[in-house]
Automatic annotation (TrEMBL):
<protein>
    <submittedName>
        <fullName>Penicillin-binding transpeptidase domain-containing protein</fullName>
    </submittedName>
</protein>
<dbReference type="InterPro" id="IPR001460">
    <property type="entry name" value="PCN-bd_Tpept"/>
</dbReference>
<dbReference type="InterPro" id="IPR050515">
    <property type="entry name" value="Beta-lactam/transpept"/>
</dbReference>
<feature type="domain" description="Penicillin-binding protein transpeptidase">
    <location>
        <begin position="3"/>
        <end position="159"/>
    </location>
</feature>
<dbReference type="Pfam" id="PF00905">
    <property type="entry name" value="Transpeptidase"/>
</dbReference>
<dbReference type="InterPro" id="IPR012338">
    <property type="entry name" value="Beta-lactam/transpept-like"/>
</dbReference>
Amino acid sequence: MAGLDLWDSYMKKFGLGVVTGSSLPNEYSGTINYYNLESTGSILSSLVFSSWGQEGNYTTLQLAQYAVMLANKGKRLQPQFVDKITTFDGKTIEKFEPNILNEVEFPDQYLDLVHSAMTEVKKSGFDGFPYEVAVETGTSESDIARQKVNNDLFIAFAPGRIAADSC
């Protein structure tokens, strides 16, 4: 189980399978199925399925937080829905600053490779966009009403580099 425990610890460090810290009422932490060895068959198959994005069901907000963490090179931020509260005439009543929940340390070369690979993913709809877009796509299966249903996934961020074809 050491391999699954290590995998699970990384998923949680990246905000998958835990609440996001958003303070939304009744926030769902997601569903982790990779410990269910009866359905996966073995620890090794659980790790393989998990690495493909199977055996874990996460919320949209968790996936957004995960994408931000990749963009910030390991800093998991508490989701913020507003940056400030103002009066009708623009006077700031309260301002909110970013809150780092945790940080995962990796050598820059690892995260640079992730960013680079994500910018190479085939995508459409970004023609003429002035920034590179880093993308990850995927499909996971769920059993719903005794049928396999595909769940498509798309996460993205713009790393801030001006796209070469925009110069």
